[in-house]
Amino acid sequence: MSEGKSARVLVVTSGKGGVGKTTSTAAMGAALAHLGEKVVVVDFDVGLRNLDLVLGAERRVVFDLINVINGVAKLQQALIRDKRLENLYLLPASQTRDKDALSEEGVAKVIAELRTKFDWIVCDSPAGIERGATLAMRHADAAIIVTNPEVSSVRDSDRIIGLLDSKTERAERGECVDKHLLITRYHPWRAARGEMLSIEDVLEILSIPLLGIIPESEEVLRASNVGSPVTVNAALSAPARAYFDATRRLKGEQIPMQIPNESRGIFNKLFGRKAA
Amino acid sequence: MSSFICQRQSLTFRARSYMAFAFAPQPPIEDWLADLDATLERSRGFFAGHPVVLDLSSARLSPPAAAQLVSELEARNIRVLGIEGVEAIAGEAKLPPLLRGGRGAQDIELPEPAAAAAPGPTLKKSEPASLMIDSPVRSGQSVVFIDGDVTILGSVGSGAEIIAGGSIHIYGTLRGLAMAGAAGNPRARIFCHRFEGELLAIGSHYKTADEIEDSLRRGPTQAWLDGNTLKISAMN
């Protein structure tokens, strides 16, 4: 399928819950697939799976990651192909089990097999720093650290970066996991009023390269509710464009970073249009 | 009267759990002791005064051999609090008690002095004890170096901790906690390029962020001990 290419294992992680890991996994997995890559998104949130809902695949789940690990099903039986993007697959988590059902060897075997079939393996990490999260990051070549511009999220991300530098296979081999910072739920006007950490503050604290800034938008919520990644459901919306830019940067393209407009900019645009 | 007696009889003992280092020697024990010596050479005093539990599940020692191992550790200033990983040790009253039901905690990373990485053969004795860390110290990470000074080139995250026997130098921002003079050196100091920390301590004297003047925040700061008072001032 994709022989000759080297597969990349990407973990989407954050430490804190509710910052947008699953949304970002779906959006960027879909964006990668849209750009011609063969992608599987793997839900590691055993017991609290959500990725199937966000991708609108919840009614087609038969087998899951735990079934594959336990040898109940073959990988091919558990993979669900997206209806909109033929390059995008989902490996769902089990909802009835918990994270203890993930075995280290089992995860290693599944990831090794996925590497032979896909260009990108995007692992959606559960919140926390326990078993599910450490196994999701275990085999990663690269990590996307999803952070909201507020202090608790930033400190949790700092903690996760420390774990990426010590608990992953790469770290144990003395290599480094490529780390990318994705700032989500960014409110330009709130940042301008000093109600949230500025991009500079977040970068200064975490000191890892910035992959993208996703503005807070109703489009993201709307997309989740209809079971479609925002990059598919509203591909021209501001968050979708930001996700596409971040995805291109992840692929190595040079795309200038845009900090979402400040409130004045937006108003000026609106007024300008009304006046015309 | 009888109720008084009743109360006396219902004396309760509370169970408590503590964190301890778990040593799991691998056979051959001589080699394991040699590895331990090498580790101790790099971070002397790291285990001194800390509780240590001996996990004998993989060593499978006879009672006299276990007693010998315990005395070898004592000779290295490591006191064994208890033994785990074996069913029973018969006939050795001198051995520490058996422990059961231990739960694993996260691995403890020993501080690696920069000198340990460089294969310099002759530097051994004359080298001043200092530890240099050229990466940020992240939230939840802990750097413990009882032997001397610690220098951090990056920042120390909120919820991270630096504990040094000597002074602490931080060239980035200190957002976590720093404890200098942890082995009792009253002349130890803490220097940081930018202070946003949670706690500063020298020896047993400490101040939390709440007790530190706001005017010092975000500036270059040092802390030292003046008699029994912890002093903190801006460095300009």
What does the secondary structure layout of this molecule look like, with pairings?
The complex is a heterodimer of chains A (276) and B (236).
Chain A: E1 8-13, H1 21-34, E2 39-43, H2 51-54, H3 65-69, H4 75-78, E3 80-81, E4 88-91, H5 104-115, E5 120-124, H6 131-138, E6 142-147, H7 151-164, H8 169-172, E7 178-186, H9 188-192, H10 199-206, E8 210-215, H11 218-225, H12 230-233, H13 238-250, H14 263-275
Parallel strand pairs in A: 1-5, 1-6, 2-4, 2-5, 6-7, 7-8
Antiparallel strand pairs in A: 3-4
Helix pairs in contact in A: 1-13
Chain B: H1 2-9, E1 21-23, H2 29-42, E2 52-55, H3 63-75, E3 80-84, H4 114-117, E4 130-133, E5 142-145, E6 149-152, E7 161-164, E8 168-174, E9 177-180, E10 190-195, E11 199-202, E12 205-208, E13 221-226, E14 229-234
Parallel strand pairs in B: 1-2, 2-3, 4-6, 5-7, 6-8, 7-9, 8-10, 9-11
Antiparallel strand pairs in B: 10-13, 11-12, 13-14
Largest sheet of chain A, order of strands side by side?
A: 3-4-2-5-1-6-7-8
Report how far the terminal alpha carbons of chain A are from each other: 53 Å
Low-confidence stretches of chain B: 1-7, 113-124
**What is the CATH class designation of the largest domain in chain B?**
Mainly Beta
Q: Which residues of chain A sit in consecutive blocks of at least 5 with pLDDT less than 50?
A: 263-267, 272-276
Overall structural class of chain B, as computed from helix and strand content, comes to: alpha/beta
Number of strands of chain A: 8
Largest beta sheet of chain A, briefly?
Answer: 8 strands, mixed
Described by strand count, sense and barrel closure, the largest sheet of chain B is: 6 strands, mixed
Kindly provide the radius of gyration of chain B, computed on alpha-carbon positions and rounded to a whole number of angstroms.
22 Å
On the 0-100 scale, what is the average pLDDT of chain A? 91
**Please, how many domains of chain B?**
2
Query: Can you tell me the overall shape of chain B?
Result: elongated
Number of helices of chain A: 14
Distance between the termini of chain B: 72 Å
Strand content of chain A: 15-25%
- Oligomeric form of this entry? heterodimer
Query: Approximately how much helix is present in the residues of chain B?
Result: 10-25%
Number of helices of chain B: 4
The helix-strand sequence of chain A is EHEHHHEEHEHEHHEHHEHHHH
CATH fold topology of the largest domain in chain B: Pectate Lyase C-like
